[in-house]
Amino acid sequence: MTRDDTDMQDLYRELILDHSRSPRHFGKLENATHTADGINPLCGDKLKVYVRVGTYGDIESAYFEGSGCAISVASASLMTDTVTGLQVDKAEACCEGITNRLTDRGPGEVPGIDLQKLRALDGVRQFPARVKCATLAWHALQAALSNETAPATTE
Amino acid sequence: MSAVAQVASAADWRDDFPVLDQSMHGHSLVYLDSAASAQQPAAVIDAVARYQREDHANVHRGVYTLSHRATEAYEGARDKIVDFINANSRNEIVLTSGTTESINLVAQSFCRPRLHAGDKIIVTHLEHHANIVPWQMVCGQTGAELVVAPINDRGEVELEKMLDLIDDRTFLIAVAHVSNALGTVCPVREIVEHAKAHGIPVVVDGAQGVPHLDIDVQELGCDFYAFSGHKMFGPTGTGVLYGREALLEDMPPWQGGGDMILEVSFDKTIYNELPYKFEAGTPNISGVIGLGAAIDYLQAIGMQRIAAYEHELHDYMVGELRKVEGIRLIGEAREKASVQSFLLGDIHSHDLGTILDHQGVAIRTGHHCAMPAMQRFGISGTSRASVALYNNRDDIDRLVVALEKAKEVFA
Questions:
Q1: pTM for this predicted structure
Q2: How far apart are CA B75 and CA B55, in angstroms?
Q3: Which residues in chain A are contacts of B358 at CB distance < 8 A?
Q4: Under CATH, what is the fold of the domain A3-153?
Q5: Cβ–Cβ gap A127/B354 under 8 Å
Q6: Which of A53, A90, B256, B293 could pair with A86 in a Cys bridge, judged by C-beta atoms 3.0 to 4.6 Å apart?
Q7: Beta carbons within 8 Å of A81's beta carbon, 6+ residues apart
């Protein structure tokens, strides 16, 4: 098996294929407190992220809908799994941690949070053209959450 | 041009393109994205390098020998373009940065001063964004309306319906010669014929037409024909706007600067003559010289010969793709040129593009800058393979093998 075949299997791991075929928390969340769109202009794919933040600042529910490639859908699905139940600041730290890890720009860990499952996305690092697919949902989540927590910047 | 003269058969053409001689992820490179940008033959690369090593100076300015040589080479390329598309004269050949700039020039210089609120510009549903957005912009500036002619399920312009849209408020028709996303060859001659009967000018987006068809702008009868150098094996950042001289003569410059003037004072500027009044600033000299070399290369082989070869290869590609289980072809016009879009099962085009890339096969994936055309088919994008004179049946076979591999990954 060549290095390239390994890279390919690394990108399309079973967990990624599973989440892309059967995305979790897929659909519209009716009583969302925050939403944001994520658009990848390269391919025109769009995701919409829905979050319901409870009175204690925790994410009670996170959903997404839209269409995208296997990588973007799987990443969004894994994201909703990961952030459900987290405090908003922890979820934001996860967004940053994942983006850092996939782009090798900073610490890819978040203290107190187990991101082990998200290591399935690591294969994308060998595919620079596809990193944006993997980070799309996380950017959308960040946008959704910042609308609430930083109303001063909202015009 | 002795190197070009030696080009004898299709099998040899491939050897003229140095970039193709490399391996990609452990496989020999199969380049099937010429509709996005065609590769350059050594003759073009060498012409650009020779100019830069031996002849570079600014054009139209210096009295010294080097500047004269640069000007001769640059203007020599313009002459080649005149001949290549059979324009009437050099005055009709405006050199631009590409099709996009050419179309924007028409929108801003020809349309904007003349358009009134309620006038109409007709485009078709299959256009590239470069033949949509400039018209939207000028419509926004003037209150004119953009009207869209429909296409059918095969991806063909519905000519009768398009002609029905023509009325006394129609100011202009803009249409692609060949659709970059669907490969459809549009009935430009018929459209021009009907438009002429109503006195309506026609702009042809020829970005995909020029590399594949033998273009004769006088025979087509269009008023403007826009195209890019890099789709026809020349350098990026080069392009052409052909315009009928009578129309160009009446149009104001759209960018001001050096080279487009005869005389400047703070009271008044007298503009240069055609085509220079549309060419402000130092142009892409080396690129245009490369474009001239690309024309030499194409003409040495012969556009009709190239078209015939590509047509045969395209038919082979479509035939082989049809055999792939789970494939859905997008764009099945009866008249097509060397581009085939498709979907494979429910595999997203970007996933497909990545898997193919890792087998050395380069295709385009996504919306192809033709989002409305994608929307017409209810999809967000496709995978697209496009062939050029340097491709062969082996390339198509490799594409098919790679598609089967992709199905395995997503099985």
A1: 0.91
A2: 14
A3: 4-5, 7-8
A4: Sufe protein. Chain: A (3.90.1010)
A5: yes
A6: A90
A7: A24, A25, A117
